[in-house]
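TEACHING EXERCISE
Course module: macromolecular assemblies
Task: Read the component lines below, then compare them to the predicted structure of the full complex.
Student: A.B.
Group: 4
Components provided:
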Amino acid sequence: DAGVIQSPRHEVTEMGQEVTLRCKPISGHDYLFWYRQTMMRGLELLIYFNNNVPIDDSGMPEDRFSAKMPNASFSTLKIQPSEPRDSAVYFCASSWVVYEQYFGPGTRLTVT
Amino acid sequence: GQQLNQSPQSMFIQEGEDVSMNCTSSSIFNTWLWYKQDPGEGPVLLIALYKAGELTSNGRLTAQFGITRKDSFLNISASIPSDVGIYFCAGQTNYGGSQGNLIFGKGTKLSVKP
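Instructor-supplied answer key:
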């Protein structure tokens, strides 16, 4: 079975550019999560969806961040405009049972 | 907000040794989970615990949900080289936040003794 798929695996962009991260959850999972991981702050939940509906976006840093889930098999996390402090590894995770989350390989974002 | 204190921050293992790590909090948690992360990869779920006092094994790994609901332990028996990596505890609480909002510890880094 395919796990959570994320693309791209690496992204390097200049400050001010728009960045779009993509995620395909495990088929049949009703929950989808977006996390950010940094050395300073560890793993932080940004937003999660249940049946394509955003449930909790309290972790989204600011209005520059937005996430969508147009259907059960696809989600995007967009940063516009990007800033150097957004540099981090972004993970998508999905689950059937809300707590037992399965993570993708991550997208390493570098904003210069 | 809720915080998880994970210890030790790092440890060195020799093949064959048993390993213990723990996670504590000042808040009560309803669910505890343990993940392992290898370099360049996402965390992988090892064990999920749902009930105070619960003891669950997954191969050489054993985890316990503390009776006070404020802590959890992970033990690895007879460690092997592929056990190296970063181990994270995660907890869920109904106090603030939503059901899916897991709080993660800072991790315990397991390395091989030089």
